[in-house]
Amino acid sequence: MDNNETGSAHPHPHPSERRRGVVAGLVYVFEQVMPDPFVLSIGLTLVVILLAFAFAPHATLPVILASWYGGTFNILGFALQMILILATGYAIAEAPLVQRGLRAMAAGVHTPARAALLVFPIVAVAAWLNWGLGLIVGALLSREIARRVKVDFAWLVAGSYSAWSVCNSGLSSSIALSQASHGNALNLVEKATGQVIPLSQTVFAPFVFIPTVLVVVVMTAIFIRMHPKPEHVVAFSEAAPEAGSDAKAGANANAASNADADPHARGALPSSFAARAERSMLGTLILLALGIGYLAMTWSAKGFELDINTTILIFLLVGLALQRTPIAYADAIRRAARQTGSMLLQYPVYGGIMGIMTGTGLASTIAKTFVAIATPVTLPVLSYLSSLIITLLIPSAGGHWAVQGPFVLPAALSLHASVPRTAMGVAMAENVSNMLQPFWAVPVVAIAGIRIQRVMGYTAVTFAVSLVIYGAALWLIP
After folding, report:
1. Per-residue confidence (pLDDT) for residue 6, from 0 to 100
2. pTM for this structure?
3. Domain map of the chain by residue range?
4. How many whole angstroms separate alpha carbon 150 and alpha carbon 19?
């Protein structure tokens, strides 16, 4: 906290100065206390083990070890899916046409306020449509704006991540989509009642849609007020101390990829078969034909439906079309791999946490504790509150729902509480807790090139505000 905010020259600071002082304090605390996300995930593993021994019904050492091992390796398929979503999204965002669009949008930004007014709605809409797209657009748009305008870079990246937080209330919500999809393995409602819940009762319901819009509007206004004073701004730099090694490595990676694309650099002749094949669009057209053909065949037979795999396929096809040649797309994916590398470490660790919570019964104990005191009116809110805790330990919405859903849905049916409201209480709590759980922030800060600790200091404010907005909506909006 700076002297202008607390010094003797200002014995009674203006409310806006006090507000900025609180945010600066949060940033300082996160920088001093929060370790690297991988180290944090190891610490959370230890916490979960201790909680399991204390409260879980099946917490024996053999069960914990077996559950940890099973969870660690069972998540690998999902981990690769998530990494592919980010890598293929990165390849789209890096395409020349998309880059020109980002530059055009950033060109009209001259102040921090305009930066927030641009970033929040664009990222929120992208995230509402697809969570992977929102992550990529937020990180790259923040970089493009920060190259042109003197804004605090951690503040800007935190704003884009805050706008992304609405994704679990949108069209790519794992919980909403699975309950609307006939035969889906996670459609617990259909398994219990034989019915599906259409999106009109979840994503488009007033108790979900209204708070989602409110979070974006309110947080935009709050972030504008939270921007540091000019003398305390830490602006973006291609070789900033906190991201200098990444920037240098990125430059080396770009140079290497350019060498790959240059036939002379690889020793291949410009007229060789290899060079012509790399620059030919034939390979791109073959993959486009296969992918578009599959989507057309599937959607004509079963109707339009998006899941993780079709999202990856669509991102792949769009990226190929925008990059045009196979070698250009391969180079983009190679550069994307640098940004997703840290996730390779974290996903297995969180898979182990999920395995321990499920195998020992710890997650069911948490959920049942809240359900035991619920009424038809309070169950959705208690489902929301228990989800806040579970999300901090299981940050994947699909995995989280597989753990909590089997307990809250039977409770909703037996109490005759609102099933859609109870289910979306779990999803909306994901939005909130993600602002304190660094799991999904890792790819954002990696692409942006900034330390996560400074970003989480700002998103802690988003956590507090969205906690109230979503909770009030579940309680008060019909």
Report:
1. 41
2. 0.77
3. 35-476
4. 21
Q: Tell me the pLDDT tens digit for each residue of 71-88.
A: 899 878 877 877 887 788
- Residue 387: strand, helix, or coil: helix
Residue 242 has φ and ψ, to the nearest 5°, of -75, -15
Residue 269: predicted pLDDT: 61
Dihedral angle computed from the Cα positions of residues 322, 327, 330 and 332, in that order, rounded to the nearest 10 degrees: -50
For residue 314, give Cα distances in angstroms to 5, 113, 158, 189, 439: 50, 34, 28, 28, 24
> Are 420 and 199 a contacting pair, CB within 8 Å?
no
Name the token pair of 286.
């073959």
Beta-strand (E) ranges in 271-367? none
Measure the CA angle with vertex 219, ends 100 and 477; round to 5°.
120
pLDDT value, residue 210:
97
Show the 3-state SS of 22-83. HHHHHHHHHHHHCCCHHHHHHHHHHHHHHHHHHHCCCCCHHHHHHHHHHHHHHCHHHHHHHH
Burial of 429 (0-12, 13-18, 19+ CB in 10 A): buried
